[in-house]
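Suppose a colleague, Dr. K., hands you the sequence of a protein chain of 109 amino acids and asks what its three-dimensional shape might be. Before reaching for any lab equipment, you can write down a predicted structure in token form. Begin with the sequence itself:
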Amino acid sequence: MKRQICRRTAVLAAVLLAAATSMRPIALRAQAPTQSAQLIILSKPVGAEVTINRRKMTQPTNATFVMPPGKYVVSVVGAGGALECADTTFTLTPGQTLTVTCTRMGWIL
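The predicted structure, expressed as tokens, is then:
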């Protein structure tokens, strides 16, 4: 009985080895890393507080933010409340540089 099990195991191992050695590697496409985008936020007057996706940024306007492509909700407040640009969604694509300006009249794209 043990010989029969050993023989079956040997045959199974031989079949698996033959199958494994005859397999060709799968061709994979090269994947380039995602290219960053830039969001340049300006304001008149300068020095306003920037919020991106509900997080206050440490860098006031005028500022350049390098970030992955995607959608971002941006707001700017400054100059003692005299300057306010409400939440606006901007979509960045790979390699894009988007410049927006917050003025007393609102966003200028």
